[in-house]
Amino acid sequence: MENLQILKMRFAALLLLFIPTLGIAFEPLNTDDAGTVANGTNQIEQYFFTTASHGSGSAATVDIITPGEEYFGGEGAKAFPFTYTRGVAENIEISIGATYFSIPKGNYSPIANKVIAIKWRFAEAEDGRWALAIKPSFTLPGTPQQQVHGLDLALPNYALNLIGSHYSDELEVHLNASYSKSPYNTNYAVGVGPESNRINILFFSAAPVWRVSQSVRLALDTGITTNPPSTEQYLSSYALLAAIISVSDQVDLGLSYMRSAANMGIVISNSGLSVSRSEVGFTWRF
What we know:
Elements lengths: L1 H13 L27 E13 L23 E12 L2 E12 L7 E14 L5 E10 L4 H5 L8 E11 L3 E11 L18 E12 L4 E11 L8 E12 L4 E11 L2 H6 L4 E12 L1
Antiparallel strand pairs: 1-2, 1-12, 2-3, 3-4, 4-5, 5-6, 6-7, 7-8, 8-9, 9-10, 10-11, 11-12
């Protein structure tokens, strides 16, 4: 019975390895948008997330993360992802991000997933109806103990995200297609995962965002991606619902709920093992 519980915990954790190491996205979504922070201005995104597992009789809590972060542990995680972005040209921004993990705790730094990214909006319509951007990012390596406990990978990672956005008065649609290289220190385990993980990760997502009033936007974010555990199915899926509330021209409040599983059928029907993430926070532009 104990071995079965461990197996369930391990399988649930493996479902969550699928988010690639991209720069922080259009919070609280996973999918990024082609917009950039205005030249000479700044943006701070400060969020909090917690996770839970569902189905198959498992009461274990495991983590799923926003892009730019990874958590591979077999226990629950509560964390505070932070991103600072600076507009350095009319169509270029630079961002740095990191995540503070309040849970789990151990003999290692709680600060992980340190990401540096540049977004370049290289094409756009004169009327502003569409835009294309490209976003390379680099994730600094964690320590071996962080890797063992699932907070980070102990080798540098890098990624490239191609972003397309279409804008209208009431609807935005954002598309992402990315590749990430996610090597790890093979002398150490990666959380509760298997001995061998895929390190070439593909990620495809779409997120329509509806403006329901002057201050409220609602979003549906869905995607598929490579599942890193080499012993598991190649693709995994997720679906996310989000609300973004503009309390002023400078401040947005965001909240989202995401569910992920081995396929979209399980995500929609909630009929098998899945993992959820709840997230809340704010974006401040100054």
